[in-house]
Amino acid sequence: MKEKQNIILAITGASGAIYGKRLFDCLHEKGYGIHLLISKQGEQILREELDLGTDYFQREGVFFYKNDDLNVRIASGLFPCLGMAIVPASMGVMGRIASGISNDLVSRAADVALKEKGRLVLVPRETPIHEIHLRNMLTLSRAGAVILPASPGFYHRPRSIDDLVDFVVGRILKVLAIENDLLKPWEPSSGAGPE
């Protein structure tokens, strides 16, 4: 069996915990070493939206970190990692990262990903958004992060919520350069489709 490759996954306190759970499931199925951070608000959203506790994520190959502990290996630029995804990413977390404020492990690990020119995928689900949110996203994008809003497509004719979730998670995996079969190739039938 190949050596596990590391991915940092953070689940923060924005609605849309289903995206973080599904990404976790896909990464675990593929055998990645998952370095998991769940903020206190993220734990609350998991309970409220999915009836899940942190015990769901306690599996082989999963490493848990406390969000208030900055003295861990994923807070270092020397940690070997394919990338980091914050799914969902609250606007508060995105604002702290955009401002360079590393006052918790989620923002510190994201800061490390940016400074090391690694992959950082931020998945906001907030709507509507205002000018400060937009400025923070622009700052993050200019610093090298990928802003991937939880905006599912419909040209593949989704039949369930799972289809909509898989569309977004498939895009996250693609940005992390992880092969997946969640995204079906688009085949035009009437000339309409993705832009």
The helix content is 25-40%
Question: Looking at the chains present, what oligomeric state does this protein adopt?
Answer: single chain
- State the total count of DSSP E strands: 6
| CATH fold field value | Rossmann fold
CATH class: Alpha Beta
Physical arrangement of strands within the biggest beta sheet:
3-2-1-4-5-6
Low-confidence blocks of residues: none
Query: Mind telling me which CATH architecture this is?
Result: 3-Layer(aba) Sandwich
What is the H-and-E element order? EHEHEEHHEHEH
How many structurally independent domains? 1
**Overall outline:** globular
Query: What Rg, in angstroms, do the CA atoms define?
Result: 16 Å
What share of the residues does DSSP label as strand, in percent? 5-15%
Mean pLDDT: 93
Task: Supply the key terms.
195 residues; alpha/beta; single chain; Rossmann fold; globular
